Amino acid sequence: MNIKEVYGSPYENREGEVINLEVELDEGEKLSKGGTIEIEMMDGTFVQREIKIINPRYAGDYAEVCDKAKDWKRSKKPVSEITGACLCTVVVTDVPHHEIKTQSEIERREMIKEMESRYCLTPYKEILSGSKSIYEHVREGYSVPDKVIEYLNINNVYLTCSGIYNHPFEPEKTLFGFDMFSDGYYYWHCCTAEYVTKYGLVLPEEFISYVMSDKGTEFIKKYKQGDIKPEVY
To answer: What is the domain extent for residue 12?
Structure first.
């Protein structure tokens, strides 16, 4: 048996209360409603949880674990037992979502570790990139050398991010997703150059010094020569 993916249920407000496990069963392996499933955690330990639901199809099937679902449509023939080889979904409760071992979680943690090795220029909650407020880092009349703006516009994609948010300085505009650019040491929101030139977003002085140094010149040169390849996560 292999837990391939983990999904939180959309029918429960409390994080971690209801978890959907996408499970790959080997030939002859059997799971039953009311039985238990052994779940490997990221720290190498195992926990056992009761199987509440197997292969939910409708929102009402979650009535077993969620009061909100009791009045919604349910499957006429709910699944009480399943035998492999097959893929199936089982629902359990009271297990931390991001502590369950899956390939996706392993990759997610590797990505976080990689991001922590670089410095984010735009860690702002208004653009879904951090916890600070962008409005506390703007200054009227602020400007930087043209070389810095050229650097910020280098379309070397590091991360492609999803999400819906309002433009931080033009809230009537709704934005869908964004890229993060990077030079291998710093990374920043793809609209950073615009935020600097139009709205006075202040950049760290050490970043400006870095861009104005020979290292910054070398990166621009390599990018123009096509020697820099996107490293999309």
So the answer is: 2-105
90: domain CATH number is 2.40.30
Q: Determine the Cα–Cα distance for residues 49 and 216; give it in Å rounded to an integer.
A: 53
Report yes or no on 113 lying in a domain: no
CA distance 36 to 32: 8
Closest CA to 195 of 120, 117, 142, 119: 142
Rounded to two decimals, the pTM is 0.64
For the cut 60, the answer to whether the pLDDT of residue 232 exceeds it is no
Specify whether 219 is located in the same domain as 123. Answer: yes
Place of tokens 């600070």: 132
Q: Confirm whether 206 is domain-assigned.
A: yes
What average pLDDT does range 10-19 have in this prediction? Answer: 69
Tokens describing residue 177: 């997703």
